[in-house]
Amino acid sequence: MNTSNQTDFVVAERERIKLEYQRRAREVSPDLYAPWQPSARFALESRNRTAATMLHRLGVFPETGDQCLEVGFGSLGWLSELLGWGVSESDLHGIELDPARAAKAQGILPAADLRTGDAVELPWDRDMFQLVVASTLFTSVLDLQVRRLIANEIVRVMAPGGALLWYDFAYNNPRNPNVQAIARAEIKRLFPALRGEIRAITLAPPLARAIAPRWWTLATFLEAIPLLRSHLIAVLIKGSGSSSD
To answer: How many CB atoms neighbour CB 17 within 10 A?
Structure first.
């Protein structure tokens, strides 16, 4: 666990993110990503299916008894999907900066170990988790130093032979300067010691919102075109001989 004093840039970035949470709560309708929205359902089904396939192909699909962590789980994140994959609720762990979101998830999963805190200092021992999930997390962190601290903490708590499941967008939204896209090259820079696979995925949300409610098959066809995909999904594995201090 990183026990060093947090510097000014960490505190400043944490406060900026908290203010951005508040702005989104005021200005973004919760219906936008609701499960009854065809575009949201389309993206989730594609994302989850691809993640499961990649994890299985690389030999790191979570098994019963594996300890799994999601960093920045929001109101629930991937935790419910991990349950569906066979992970026990008591083997689920998570950390979330927003107390209200964390409390909502804890109410749904009372046996899970869900904590409120900052990802620059993860409150778990090194080499603990077979799977760590970072989903739409790093694009909300604008400070490059904070990104590196979070990445280092993720690698520290990953068990040798364990995997990082990454999902995040690769193109900027010009209407939202509070997030910043992350391309393949930066993922590799953040996790130089990990090896695995990175793929483009997810039909660009404006297209999905326009097409999925009426033409699900057409949306599936368009998502097969790499230039129309807006996100990256990655499974990155920590070497079996590695151990992080």
So the answer is: 20
